[in-house]
Design a protein that fits this description.
With 202 residues, the protein is an alpha+beta fold. The protein has 2 helices and 11 strands; from the N terminus they run αβββββββββββα.
């Protein structure tokens, strides 16, 4: 090999070593600045992260047909009996309805909805008169939902086990979704049943 070629090969080798050295230094620098990821589990605030997502009822109203209305948060609640063992309830707030299997009908009025219940049903209604949206979470039962306000789309929805109904009057939309994850609500209902709450809703 000629002296010129040997010199060029030497220079190239030195350049490669310098580049590799710079890359190594950069890797070491960035690896030290990156945070160390631990294998620890995220902190849990309770025994079950969803266990306390639904508050304990402040009271329960029991009607003559043994229907029970659990008040999670009540602005107003009124009811009246109708012929043939039927009932009408007007509500404003967050409430759970436990309706027995009876021959009559059970009708609930919110600002936006009329809910007609037939047969044994358990469901939560979140409906505040000062809000544009309302929600119904069904554990089990048969409920027909209708809009109470004038709408260009006056359709009805039939709700059954594990259905979710959402309505928003500002956009005139009522939508049903199936297969609602009701584990938290079922757990809440079991705790309420076992606690034996007897105080009247206030």
């Amino acid at each position: 090999m000629s002296p010129g070629k040997a010199r060029r090969s030497f220079v190239i080798a030195i350049a490669i070593l310098l580049i590799l050295g710079c890359i190594t230094l950069l890797i070491l620098h960035f690896s030290q600045s990156l945070p160390v990821l631990s294998a620890q589990k995220p902190a849990v605030t309770g025994e079950n992260s969803t266990k306390d997502s639904i508050s304990a009822p402040s009271g329960v109203l029991t009607l003559p047909d043994s229907s029970r209305i659990y008040t999670l948060h009540k602005v107003s609640l009124n009811w009246s009996a109708a012929p043939r063992n039927s009932y009408k309830v007007t509500m404003d707030g967050d409430m759970f309805f436990d309706i027995p299997d009876s021959p009559g009908t059970f009708i609930i009025y919110t600002r936006l909805l009329k809910l007609s219940v037939t047969g044994k049903s358990g469901f939560r209604v979140m409906a505040y008169s000062n809000e544009d949206g309302e929600e119904v979470q069904v554990l089990y039962g048969h409920i027909v939902a209708e809009k109470r306000y004038k709408s260009d789309f006056p359709e009805t929805e039939t709700l059954r086990n594990n259905d979710l109904l959402m309505i928003n009057s500002s956009i005139d939309l009522m939508e049903k979704e199936a297969d609602l994850d009701t584990r938290a609500l079922r757990s809440w209902k079991k705790r309420v049943d076992s606690s034996g709450i007897k105080s009247p809703a206030k």
